[in-house]
Amino acid sequence: MRIFNWLRSLRSRFQRSASDIENTSGKIFFEGGNGDAPEAAIVVRGARYDLEGTYAEFGWLTHMYGQKDHDWKLISHSHGVHVGRDIDTFVLRLADGRALTVFFDCTESFGKSPHSSTESPEPQVKRRLDDTVPPDSI
Fold it and tell me: How many domains does the structure of the chain reveal?
C-alpha cells in the first residue's frame, strides 16, 4: 500500500510541474527525449536508488497518460542496455486500445539500493570452528 500512496503523492506533485518530482534528497526530474525510442529515452535524474527511479517512471506515466488500470494498462516492463545506457521499457495499452511503448534511461539509479553505502563495510572477523582459544595463543 505504501507504493500506491507514494505514487498518489507524486501525482499531486506533478500538478506543479511535469518535469519535477520532489523526493527526500531533493528533486527527481526528467530530461532527454520524448521516450518513443531507446535513442530518445526520457532520462530520469535525481533518483538515488533503483526503486525510487522506477516509482518516478510510473509517476511520469501517470501524469502523461492518466490513472493506471483505468486510462492505461501495463502490458510489460523490462530492462535492457542500449549503447551503454540502462533502459527501462514500458509497453502500455491505452484505454482506446492503442499500444504504446515508452523508454526511460535509468542509468543514474539502476542497480542501486537504498541501503547501499559509499563507505566500505566493517571487515568481518573470520572465526575458527573452535573460537574458545584466542587466535593470538595459537
Answer: 1
